[in-house]
Amino acid sequence: MDLDKLRKTAAEVVAREDVRYLLGWKKGTFGYRIAPGFVEDAESAAELIFSPLCTANLATYLTLTEKPPLPRGQEPDDRKVAVMVKGCDSRAVTQLLIEKGIERESVVIIGCPCPGVVDHELLAEKYPETEETAELKWSDKGFLLLQNGEETEIARDELLAEKCRLCRYPNPVVSDIMVGEPVETWEPDDDQGVAEVEGKNAEVRWEYWQEQFSNCLRCYSCRNVCPLCYCEDCILDRLNPTWIYRSVNFSENTAFNLARAFHLAGRCIECGECERVCPANIPLGKLNRKLAREVREKYGFEPGVDPEAEPFQASYKPDDPEEFIL
Amino acid sequence: MSEKPKVGVYVCHCGINIASTVDVEEIASFARDLPNVEVARTYSYMCSDPGQNLIKEDIREHGLNRVIVASCSPRMHEPTFRKTIQEAGVNPYFLEMANIREQCSWVHDDLEVATPKAKKLVAASVAKVRLLEALEETEVDAEPATLVIGAGIAGIQAALDIADAGFKVYLVEKTPSVGGRMAQLDKTFPTLDCSACILTPKMVDCAGHPNIELMTYSEVEEIGGYIGNFDVKVRKKARYVDFDKCTGCGDCANECRVKDRFPNEFDQGMGKRSAVYLPFPQAVPAKYTIDPEQCLYLTKGKCGKAPKCQEVCGVGAIDFEQEDEFVEFKVGAVIVATGFDPFDPSKKPEYGYDDYPNVITGMEMERLVSASGPTGGKITINNGEEEIEPKEVAFIKCVGSRDESVGNEYCSRVCCMYTAKQAHLVREKLPDANIRIYYMDVRAFGKGYEEFYDRVRRENVRYIRGNPSEIFKRGNKLVVKAENTLTSTPVEDEVDLVVLGVGMEPRKEMRDIMDLLRLSQSQDRFFLEAHPKLAPVDTATDGVFLAGCCQGPKDIPDTVAQAKGAASSAMIPLARGKVTISAQVAEVNEATCRGCGFCVEICPYSAIEMVTVNRFGYEIEVARVNEALCKGCGSCSAACLSDSIQPKSFRDWQILPQIAALGAMK
How many Å lie between the alpha carbon of A133 and the closest alpha carbon of chain B? Predict the structure, then answer.
């Protein structure tokens, strides 16, 4: 990735009159941390980076923009927000377009073809984090780690995040400006990483998920980081009726996690952010990918690919054969 | 809710329908102990007059303000009891039906199982009824006009009935003439009156009727709105002939440079016509039309030095500059009478329809025997070598009907009789011919049909029970290979002419109409009626009615009967002048709606639209329900991720306590 080109493009975009700010990645304060960058002027664009550490899906911030009540007579700021996206992130943007979460003319999409990012936990485990901010680059063999003045070559398979191993869209599906050449796609495993759990009988699966959901802290990090969980008033927060009680126990935890999974069926674009941020390490990706695969195979719908597509939840056909519905 | 709920519970015996499997007295005494229940009673037939009076008296005496009727499905008697409590001064939407018949007594045979279940259902209803809201119905004016789509016999009849009653009718026909399939038929079974003789007067009537605005060669482009207030847009396709000037003299067709080059649709392609044409001599209106895909001038931009039609037309009616016109109007009701397509026998290749010129369809046979047909009514056929008068004629029935292999499981209801009729006509014209009919069953169910079938059999027409497996050529003859299943003998009959008794199929273009009016199809792919027995001309869309073969195969008497039914149904809102809008509709919570539009897409009645509202200075889109179109089906609610749209009376906070009550009981 040519960082100079990236920064130059970003600076040009931010300088535009119709652009309010740009969302990108920048170095964090120590080790492997990466921070989201809200770039408002051309100079700050120099801080931007794009590396295998840039796991965060910045599309989340598109719907998080605060809209405080405007004093009478004041016009809302209608300028565009520019956002840097990897392949998976671009699917989030596309899905937001499909379901009118954002308007096409309100965003400038800067596409960054992505050869795959790392699993931060694996990285920190194998190459302990130091105080100094480290750099990680894509290399021919996989990754190149620059830390404390040392260079370490790391094989791709060693650190590649699971969601990237299963990725089918490394190149952005929608963009206004593309930075860098498209990367070659790879063949992901057919099973989408769910075959192992799927293959077990219902009792074993129940035990498996019971264990996982029992660990849930109900911190709602998964919901907050999800680019497609953006209802201003989440029904899981409501008191009348109370769909899910606040008590942290297996029953309510399960209801929460399954309700979220079902609200994402046909909408989840498999960016893996929920699983990444989960402090309890619940394999949420498995749940979401399972549903995504069902939707793909049974309904022929793939979220976040075609901005003109009819949303899955809204595509009822009277002549649906309903073969798999009892 | 200001007033304290006072609930009355009425448990119906429904004769023995409920009482034989549910201990109704026990249900009533159980209900008396439920919270807010003032009175609980049983009665043999709650829906009867005395049953309803029981409820009314209790409302007066005990001051009831909520009523639960534990009886049949709300689809059956909810309207009845709503009216009952309304008459006694209670809001009709303060009623809850506990379905202890269809969902309880009918599906169980053990008193010990059904009674506790009925208790649960009643307890759940009590939990919900306290939370119901008072809803008000509204009335809107109905436009006293009807749109009829399709001008075959069904459309013509419906239009005439409505127009005669004094209401305006817009009759829209896709082809240049009214008449439809019936106009193509020769004689009609079982009375053998000539189709044209009985149809033509009706065709002329509908063209001249002061209340009918006839639009031929036109198609419906858009229909919006709802019962009483449909907004219709019709495309009048360019005829390239001035409608008012044309006298129908036919000089243009005679002089056309491509005279008699194109297959005539009316003669099933057996006759020829020019690029400028009148579909058939009795066409109404008797105005010529230029086919833009065939006319030399319109396709190539050049027709000799000047188009001959233009030269010879004495009134200067030919107008190549004409363009499609759009007409918009309002109607209160719509009748769909779009008819059928004959089955395409190419889908049964074993019968060789595509290979042999002397294998023809029943519709082609109609034209062949018709005096106005391509042969002037003489039965001659090209056997691939020469034009002959057939000596051996075979009819095959159930082609494309009752046949799962082509996806048509249904019986087309006319083929048995038209085959018998055609056999009779062949016998009349070719007294010495050998006539065989291959059949599976003979279904002669209508008035005078069985008698006619008997008559034809006595006319030396051989009925052979067996469905032919194959037709192939031997010398200059066709061989029909079949098994006579009555004698269990294989037969190979050499014949000169094979007539395939093709059935009816839904129109290929019916998808367009479905999308326009949000209609659905039944299993057989014809339009789905609202109820197969009790609402056979109604559809799921209020104010839209079905007539004729678009709803399913029918003969002419049934088609006319249904058309008259559709006409009188369509006139109900027209005559009343008003339509009542149900109050049980969906409602949007604009504060939480995130404007995704899932509900708009999923609504089967196009009842939801996005509107822009100002929220604290920001223009945002939210969903809004058109209450006149909404049927309260709840599809929107299921699609909404933020729970921002819910049907009134079925809101979460009304249903959840109901479910909780069900779950609370052991």
Answer: 40
